[in-house]
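Progress note, sequence design subtask.
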């Protein structure tokens, strides 16, 4: 989710309740609260507009005064609305925008960055056509199968990271991981899951091989040390026996 910085003359975002992710075809609700509505002293009356990529959309714009009492409410439908007035003359000091709609289908899947859709954009418009974007909110959307593929790829990345941290070189696992990402971006989720699982196996094997080699190296080093100690002791004893015979 990305919230655009509001210009100096625009209202402020007081609070936001926005889903970070949502499944395609499900219904979601988001609420944005605006305050400091008249930051520009010469702009005490303006219009609020909104747009979204949700479908089957309903908007509710609720107005509150300085005491927190509700003073007005407007309802809109559709992916765009306009003509919601905000005026100091009505005593409005806070505006709450609630949107409800259905999460749209994914046009293009993307693993990194995750595919998103426009959940909501709110705009302040002024007489004469000037406008300021108050905020833009995006949400990651997914299907059940794409979510499974993403989780599998995430697990593969974690396995590769662990292998690299251990000093292993999981090059084959990285190749499968890259292919899994490409398959995900192409919408081939069964292939992506299979490749991701294979990347996990190869990363774990690389890490295990590294650990086995380390164990062998330590064992050989230990044997060398023991050999040196034993050799040194035997040499010392032989020299002592020689000395005793001479004595």
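Output:
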């Amino acid at each position: 989710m990305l919230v655009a910085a509001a210009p100096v003359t625009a209202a402020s975002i007081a609070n936001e309740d926005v889903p970070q992710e949502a499944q395609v075809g499900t219904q979601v609700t988001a609420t944005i609260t605006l305050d400091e509505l008249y930051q520009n002293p010469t702009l005490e009356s303006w219009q609020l507009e909104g747009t979204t990529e949700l479908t089957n959309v309903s908007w509710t714009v609720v107005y509150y005064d300085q005491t927190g009492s509700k003073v007005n409410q407007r309802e809109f439908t559709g992916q765009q609305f306009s003509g919601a007035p905000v005026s100091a003359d009505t005593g409005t000091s806070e505006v709450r925008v609630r949107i409800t709609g259905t999460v749209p289908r994914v046009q293009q899947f993307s693993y990194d960055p995750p595919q998103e859709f426009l959940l909501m954009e709110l705009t302040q418009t002024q007489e004469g056509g000037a406008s300021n974007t108050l905020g833009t909110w995006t949400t990651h959307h997914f299907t059940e199968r794409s979510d499974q593929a993403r989780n599998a790829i995430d697990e593969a990345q974690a396995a590769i990271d662990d292998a690299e941290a251990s000093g292993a070189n999981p090059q084959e696992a990285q190749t499968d991981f890259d292919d899994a990402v490409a398959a995900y971006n192409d919408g081939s989720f069964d292939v992506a899951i299979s490749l991701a699982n294979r990347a996990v196996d190869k990363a774990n094997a690389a890490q295990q091989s590294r650990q086995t080699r380390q164990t062998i190296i330590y064992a050989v080093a230990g044997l060398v040390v023991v050999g040196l100690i034993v050799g040194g002791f035997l040499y010392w004893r032989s020299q002592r026996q020689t000395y005793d015979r001479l004595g």
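The first helix runs from residue 144 to 165. Work on this subtask will continue into the next period as scheduled.
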